[in-house]
Amino acid sequence: QQQVKQSPQSLIVQKGGISIINCAYENTAFDYFPWYQQFPGKGPALLIAIRPDVSEKKEGRFTISFNKSAKQFSLHIMDSQPGDSATYFCAARGNNDMRFGAGTRLTVKP
Amino acid sequence: EAQVTQNPRYLITVTGKKLTVTCSQNMNHEYMSWYRQDPGLGLRQIYYSMNVEVTDKGDVPEGYKVSRKEKRNFPLILESPSPNQTSLYFCASRTLAGNTQYFGPGTRLTVL
Questions:
Q1: Which pLDDT band holds residue B64 (cuts at 50, 70, 90)?
Q2: How confident is the model over A50-103, as pLDDT tens digits?
Q3: Which of A54, A90, B78, B86 is the most exposed place for a label (fewest CB within 10 A)?
């Protein structure tokens, strides 16, 4: 069963817009929540991550919002650019077990 | 350059023909793992290793074997590949205490 549920599957945003990708998890033992960015033909690369003791983390145009009680977290990409077009995966880690969402394919139109 | 390398990058094979996908990292990481990526399913962990001679099953270990005889290498072995193992495979590594996992470039395997 998918322990981390990600939505939407695909997302099209205009340049300059805000991209929002949502994830929900089930296991309360998860203690680390990263987002990975993957370009075609490449492996995933860590984009930004958060621990459950904070509700928000911002790095440049990328922000993670975390809601521990709802067991949900989301990635916000402000001022989306065509170069942000990629597949994004949320993940959750507990012990040595990393679970990934199904991925969101983001297309940013010029 | 710090990196995870995988070989081969692309492989087409037939059912039942044993194959090995190699993975090597030059960052002295203790933890290494293998994932498969399938459309709509994201990345699912096959096996992981926390150090030399220590390996453990992930979510989808059936049909796969691994070994960790050296710290830098973590090969994935398919003793009798089947078409349902057609997938994109990624190796990854990190330090035991670290959070950042570094992925290799991927191996696209097709089993006919």
A1: very high
A2: 999 999 999 999 999 999 999 999 999 999 999 999 999 999 998 777 899 999
A3: A54
In angstroms, what CA-CA distances link B52 with A58, B3, B14, B71, B73? 37, 19, 31, 5, 9
Distance from CA of A107 to the nearest CA of B (A): 17
| Alpha helices, H only, B4-89 | none
The single-letter DSSP state of residue B100 is: P
B69 vs B71: CA distance, rounded Å: 7
The phi and psi torsions of A84 (rounded to 5 degrees) equal -85, -10
Torsion angle, CA of A12/A48/A99/B79, rounded to 10 degrees?
Answer: 90
Q: Residue A63 half-sphere exposure, CB side, CA atoms within 13 Å?
A: 12
Q: What is the pLDDT of residue B1?
A: 85
Whole-number Å distance between alpha carbons of B12 and B22: 15
The CB density around residue B36, as the number of other CB atoms within 10 Å, is 23
Q: Does B101 contact chain A (CB < 8 Å)?
A: yes
The DSSP line for B1-61 is: ---EEEE-SEEEE-TT--EEEEEEESS--SEEEEEEEETTTEEEEEEEEEETTEEEE-S--
Q: Is residue A103 left, alpha or beta, with left meaning phi > 0 and alpha meaning psi from -120 to 50? A: left
Q: How does pLDDT run across B73-104, given as a tens digit for each residue?
A: 999 999 999 999 999 999 999 998 888 899 99
Tokens 């300059």, located at residue: A16
